[in-house]
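Morning F.,

Quick status update on the modeling queue. The single chain you submitted on Monday has been processed. Sequence for confirmation:
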Amino acid sequence: QVQLVESGGGLVQAGGSLRLSCAASGRTDSIYVMGWFRQAPGKEREFVAAISWRGGRTYYADSVKGRFTISRDDAKNTVYLQMNSLKPEDTAVYYCAASARTTGWGSQYNYNYWGQGTQVTVSS
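Structure tokens below.
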């Protein structure tokens, strides 16, 4: 089992920045990729970004490219999501997820473990 704990959400004005953290524990040796997803009220959960656990390869949704950066700290078993130039449409609950799969990083159905979520609210 893998446990994921997110932190760093909050309220920010449009144009501002936030950094989310996701600390992984347990069977972290089984993880191949870590991802961030988000879900706004009344909408489907959508992919935001992913990073391979060992190689550091990254993948982003078009809606966040150039604004968000995903990174990891191997020593801390932690993945970060730096969010800059935030927009009101970025408002959502953000979830961290872990997968043992080597493909299909953009699909929530390929992730085995999920954090509890952290709220990000961007005011206009």
